[in-house]
Amino acid sequence: MEPLYLQTNRLVQETQQCFEKLEKGGDANSDAIEREIQARIDSITSNCERLEILIYKEPLNRRTNGKLRIDQLKYDRMHLQAALDTYRNRRYQRLQEEREREALLNLQFRPSSSHETSILMDHGQKHHTSLQNANRGVDDLLQSGAGILESLQGQRVTIKSAHRRLYDIANTLGLSNTTMRFIERRAYQDKFILFGGMVFTLIVIGLIVIYFT
């Protein structure tokens, strides 16, 4: 087990040195260095798997220390693989930006491009006009909703006033307690109907605003 551990540890150090060459070498030999690094990482992975099997053949007093060393190798392998993936992603993004910049520099405008541009502008103007119309429609709906709410508030005041008048009349006429409770229960139900109508109106206005925006 010990020789395999030393060999794997040496592979980790050599792979780290390969990263230094990769950073200094530029794009000239980057493909070859990347393949070399990936091959070394694969070898480290294979060695770690073998070490995890061999550790159980060691004496009990050496297993704990051996397991810690194997875990360190596995951590180093993960770190190296992550560093390689990060380098590849950076390189791909750099190449993609270079291709896009090259394509932009080589773009040639044809005489018909002005016509295409005018079509795009007309389409944008129509879209802008449609948005303005939609905004005006939403404003009208909000104003209508505000008018409905004011009307409901006025009805609430009217109902309250009518309830007070009925109560006064009932006291004047000396109506029975059963009749009074019936009137109060009816007024209580009317209050729920009023609030329910207000909530329903607000929900409808909210849905219309969300739909149009």
Automatic annotation (TrEMBL):
CDD domains assigned to the protein according to its UniProt record, in alphabetical order: SNARE_GS27
Provide the membrane topology annotation.
Single-pass type IV membrane protein
Q: Sorted alphabetically, which Pfam families does this protein's record hold?
A: V-SNARE_C (PF12352)
Which one of the record's GO molecular function terms can you name?
SNAP receptor activity
Transmembrane ranges, per UniProt, are 192-212
Gene Ontology terms: cellular component: endoplasmic reticulum membrane; ER to Golgi transport vesicle membrane; Golgi apparatus; late endosome membrane; SNARE complex
The answer to whether keyword Transmembrane applies is yes
Can you tell me which family this protein belongs to? Belongs to the GOSR2 family.
PANTHER family under this entry?
Answer: GOLGI SNAP RECEPTOR COMPLEX MEMBER 2 (PTHR21230:SF1), VESICLE TRANSPORT V-SNARE PROTEIN VTI1-RELATED (PTHR21230)
Q: What is this protein called?
A: Golgi SNAP receptor complex member 2
